[in-house]
Design goal:
With 716 residues, the protein is α+β, with helices and mostly antiparallel strands. 52% of the residues lie in helices and 7% in strands. Helix 24 crosses helix 26.
Length: 716
């Protein structure tokens, strides 16, 4: 199972507004969009759209990152609205950049990080004579090729030609579907029919198994079905019209094909599990023989599919979504072969659109902009920076750590980790609702939990990856293939001990920290160890309740509704007694009910059930961090600063860490798919359960920030 994305550090917050429609509005929007997208087809050979500046997001006179009294609004009574009290000035003065869907501590740090990385990338590109296969050569040449717009225009659709011919020539046999699904996943990152990945066996975490996942789709499940996304579906259809027209369809044919694509994808999406259902390991751990998996979808030859991907068919596989597999069988047998080929052709055209010449890239950017409600797309340099970070994650991380990460920070955070683990161990030993057997197992799991800081002891060796300064499309495909081959080579073998190696999530250059259920490990990345989460030499109270709370959050994940299903060795196994399970659920049910009552947008309520594991971790994180801070302060008294004592600064720092603004589109989207609460809720909701918070700010019955003691949830 992949690592949990911390407290949601990258996607953390609010998202998406309901699009009300007046009669005739959609028709007007359609005409405008057609005018905007279709003419781009004629401009394929003209070149790329102009480079956007790297937009600022916050005025210079406002502290953008990290705890600061200047971000507070002390005219607000903390007992009435603690969020505004702690972060009101920041909220007043901060604007969302035209090229961004949101702004907050995480996004501001990500922007700062991207600037740091771009500097390193450009330095690498300017370096001559770097050894072939070295981090500097690979990073520099990837950037050179990516920024060569004239070459991308010159090659036009040539990189797609062979695959488009393969799709056109297929006759719809099981072998055809297997070969095409394998080729599309291999070359374009995902197939709309079925996909294969390698993951640790949840019930035997010492070995990797082959996992079959449902076909990929361009939109999220809810976006295909819910009425509030009707406008988005029309934008998506028009995007497909423009792309297919550019690939050779007449406008009439493109319109027909685009409508069919949306209908087919909607049909498949409806058969898939919901995000909440996918969170439950019992739903996704469907282990069977390859023959049993093949019986679910006889219309697609799994043997051919796997061989096309370079995978030797194993004796057994894990099927993530059995119902989706059955739905795929119905699609392949009930729909004409031309319809299935249309889906595959669409993924070939759209799968690498951003890597093609001007028109295609411009259309992909425009669709993404409209979907996210942005005023303008991100600048090309930032897009390429993020792409290098995702694909050359360890080569670029090596350059970053050498230039920007200190051993002193590593030592300081490692020491803090020890203090917070000790606090949790003490709480486990004195826990009043755990039985002795469950308590001892929990202590064993905590003792086995390995937490590493900053970067791995051993870097993934990328030296065999061929990166060229004149072949951007090829670089992208080769890098993707390199990562995939490394992954599938482990099927049936012992799990690799690689750390900080999940692209965009746990690499040293990811603004994140993550717990891995199957290895019982936590990676705290180098990139997150800066404001707003940590300030070297900064206020101890603020550091403990920012990065310390992040550490506590991740530790708690080992014992939340998901983590507790994995034993100390990382195997999916129930090690809790029935009574401990009942008492835990009593407490989390209260959290679910409370979070269900938060309204994010008019009529858009929070989903307490979908976010309960992260809400539990948030509560555990700030609880452990504050308790560890008090232990520290007992030996090292902390003075009052800026009129705030240590407890008060602790809670203000936590809330400022979650200060956030988002476009309504972003809010609605995140509420539908994110397992984290929206940031404005996270900023305050956990605090209301802490007696220390109420003591620090003198809340009393009748105050909006007051919570009755019997409604305060204490888990750890």
């Amino acid at each position: 199972m992949p690592p949990t994305n911390v407290a949601g550090f990258a996607t953390l917050a609010p998202v998406r507004d309901r699009h009300g429609r007046k009669p005739g509005l959609l028709g007007k929007r359609k005409r405008k969009l057609v005018k905007r997208l279709l003419p781009a087809i004629a401009a394929f050979l003209v070149g790329l759209v102009g480079q956007q500046a790297w937009s600022g997001t916050i005025p210079a006179d406002v502290p953008s990152l990290g705890y600061s009294p200047q971000n507070m609004d002390r005219s607000v009574d903390p007992r009435q609205d603690f969020y505004r009290y702690a972060a009101g000035k920041w909220l007043e003065r901060t604007e969302i950049a035209p090229s961004a869907p949101d702004v907050g501590g995480f996004t501001l740090l990500a922007e700062q990080l991207d600037r740091q990385l771009l500097t390193l990338i450009q330095q690498a590109a300017a370096t001559s004579g770097a050894p072939k296969g070295s981090p500097r050569q690979q990073v520099g040449d990837f950037y050179k090729a990516a920024m060569d717009s004239s070459r991308r225009v010159a090659v036009f659709l040539q990189p797609l030609a062979a695959d488009l011919q393969r799709v056109a020539a297929a006759t719809g046999t099981p072998a055809d579907y297997g070969a095409l699904a394998g080729r599309v996943q291999d070359a374009y990152g995902a197939s709309p029919l079925i996909n294969a990945v390698a993951m640790p066996d949840a019930k035997d975490s010492s070995t990797y198994v082959l996992v079959l996942t449902p076909g990929a789709q361009m939109l999220e499940r809810d976006e295909y079905a819910k009425p509030e996304y009707q406008k988005l579906r029309e934008i998506y259809r028009l995007y497909a019209v423009a792309m297919l027209n550019g690939a050779g369809d007449t406008v009439d044919a493109a319109n027909l094909h685009a409508a069919k694509i949306v209908a087919l994808e909607s049909r498949m999406a409806a058969a898939m599990m919901t995000p909440l259902q996918m969170r439950e390991p019992a739903n996704t751990y469907n282990m069977m023989t390859l023959e049993q998996a093949q019986a679910l979808v006889p219309a697609l030859d799994l043997g051919v599919f796997l061989k096309t991907l370079g995978i030797t068919p194993p004796a057994r596989v894990q099927v993530v979504d059995v119902n989706a597999m059955k739905a795929l069988q119905r699609l392949l047998t009930e729909q004409p072969a031309d319809d299935v080929k249309l889906l595959l052709r669409w993924f070939v055209v759209a799968g690498r659109a951003s890597e093609l010449g001007g028109g295609y890239r411009a259309m992909e950017e425009e669709f993404s902009r409209l979907r996210k409600g942005l005023k303008e797309p991100p600048g090309r340099e930032r897009v390429i920076t993020q792409q290098i970070a995702a694909q050359l994650y360890h080569p670029l991380s090596q350059l970053y750590v050498q230039a920007n990460f200190s051993d002193a920070t590593r030592r300081e955070i490692t020491e803090m980790v020890g203090h917070i683990k000790d606090e949790f161990a003490s709480r486990l030993r004195n826990n009043a609702w755990l039985d002795d057997a469950t308590r001892q197992a929990a202590l064993e799991k905590l003792g086995r939990m390995d937490i590493q800081v900053g970067y791995p002891e051993t870097w993934v060796d990328f030296s065999a990856l061929d990166i060229r300064p004149d072949d951007h499309f090829g670089n992208v495909q080769r890098a993707a293939r390199f990562a995939f081959e490394r992954e599938i080579s482990q099927i049936g073998k012992p799990v690799l001990g690689n750390r900080f190696a999940v692209a965009t999530k746990t690499t040293p250059i990811a603004v994140n920290s993550a717990y891995n259920f199957t290895t019982n490990t936590i990676d705290i990345t180098a990139a997150i160890l800066q404001p707003p989460f940590f300030k070297p030499g900064g206020d101890v109270a603020a550091n403990y309740c920012a990065i310390g709370a992040v550490i506590g959050h991740e530790i708690t994940h080992g014992f939340d509704s998901l983590g507790r299903q994995y034993d100390p060795q990382g195997n999916l196994r129930n090690w809790w007694s029935d009574e401990a399970d009942r008492r835990f659920k009593q407490r989390t049910d209260v959290l679910i009910d409370q979070y269900n009552r938060y309204e994010i947008l008019p009529g858009l309520m929070h989903n307490g059930a979908m976010t309960v594991t992260e809400n539990t971790a948030d509560l555990g994180g700030i609880t452990l961090a504050h308790a560890a801070l008090r232990r520290y302060a007992a030996k090292n008294p902390l003075p009052e600063v800026d009129g705030l004592n240590a407890d008060q600064r602790c809670f203000v720092a936590w809330t400022q860490m979650w200060a956030f603004k988002a476009r309504s589109e972003r809010l609605r989207y995140l509420v539908s798919i994110d397992v984290h609460a929206v940031a404005s809720v996270r900023a305050v909701a956990p605090l209301l359960h802490l007696d220390a918070f109420h003591e620090a700010f003198g809340t009393r019955p009748g105050d909006p920030m007051w919570r009755e003691p019997q409604q305060r949830v204490v888990i750890w």
